[in-house]
Design brief:
Elements (H helix, E strand, L loop, with lengths): L1 H35 L4 H4 L14 H8 L3 H33 L5 H9 L4 H14 L6 H25 L3 H9 L4 H12 L1 H17 L2 H6 L7 H6 L2 E2 L2 E2 L1 H21 L1 H10 L4
Length: 277
């Protein structure tokens, strides 16, 4: 008995140690960015590296807040990511339900949707740029919203399919026997049941839209610049402003962190709900 308890304690300690290593691996860059944002330039380039500055300075944050493009880029990111997420989740939920319940497109359509996620973004960026240039959509909200929605649509459909697959058909049949229409069934019965999964998928989609850089830097301009694009502008021919880039990266991460904390219970329950069938 004692030997078994010892093995259990050792196994628990081993798992805890592995999780701690993963936690440090992912948290170390974030901590380094946060500390770099309050270091003096001489401390940022010091060898050996200075972890904790003796005299923290907040000049990088003041410079960032005084940047005329900061508020515009932050609002652009919130607007573009929010609308693109809403469109993607609404259309994706309808498409996922149709594919799962009515087998729309047969077995080929889901696989074709999955293949779109395997195409490198750099392959389609040039055709999208040329098309947007010809129809005068460059540097517009519409272009970025449509692009982000198209990029994440396949992922959202595949995520939501697993949630709809768990719904018993008998529940829907009972609602239709009681006089509920197919549209009413979807909005009044199905959606409330899978709402944790939809919230989880929406949060993942928002994070992907918020962090997207390649299409944003290629298709945006002065009016639609997002936070990742703004952060990249702090690299110039004069060099790399590490403090300003660190401050910008940290500030741009706050909305996503706040949303993740707020919707954490939906994220955990939604992903758990969709993991088994």
């Amino acid at each position: 008995m004692n030997s078994r308890k010892l093995k259990d304690h050792l196994f628990t300690g081993f798992k805890t140690g592995i999780l701690l290593l993963f936690f440090l691996f992912f948290m170390l860059p974030i901590v380094w960015v946060a500390l770099t944002s309050i270091k003096r330039p001489v401390d940022q380039m010091a060898i050996p590296p200075v972890w904790f500055p003796e005299q923290p300075v907040f000049d990088s944050y003041l410079t960032l807040f005084q940047n005329p493009d900061f508020v515009t880029s932050l609002v652009n990111s919130l607007l573009i990511s929010g609308i693109a997420t809403l469109i993607t989740v609404v259309i994706g939920a309808i498409a996922a339900y149709s594919i799962e319940r009515f087998r729309t497109g047969g077995p080929l359509l889901p696989n074709l949707l999955l293949m779109t996620r395997m195409i490198p973004p750099v392959v389609v960026i040039v055709p999208i740029f040329l098309l947007a240039y010809r129809v005068n959509l460059l540097d517009t909200y519409v272009l970025l919203i449509i692009t982000y929605s198209a990029l994440n649509m396949a992922l959202i459909i595949w995520l939501l399919r697993s949630f709809f697959a768990q719904l018993p058909v008998e529940m829907e049949e009972a609602a239709m026997i009681d006089g509920c229409s197919r549209i009413g069934l979807f909005f009044r019965i199905v959606l409330p049941v899978v709402m944790p999964g939809i919230a989880a998928a929406g949060l993942i989609c928002f994070i992907f839209c918020w962090n997207e850089f390649l299409f944003a830097v290629t298709l945006s301009g002065a009016h639609t610049k997002t936070m990742p694009v703004l952060t990249s502008t702090f690299v110039s021919e004069r060099g790399l402003d590490r403090g300003l880039m660190s401050a910008s990266g940290l500030i741009s991460s706050l909305p996503v962190i706040v949303l993740t904390i707020v919707f954490q219970r939906y994220l955990v329950s939604g992903l758990t709900q969709g993991s088994v069938k």
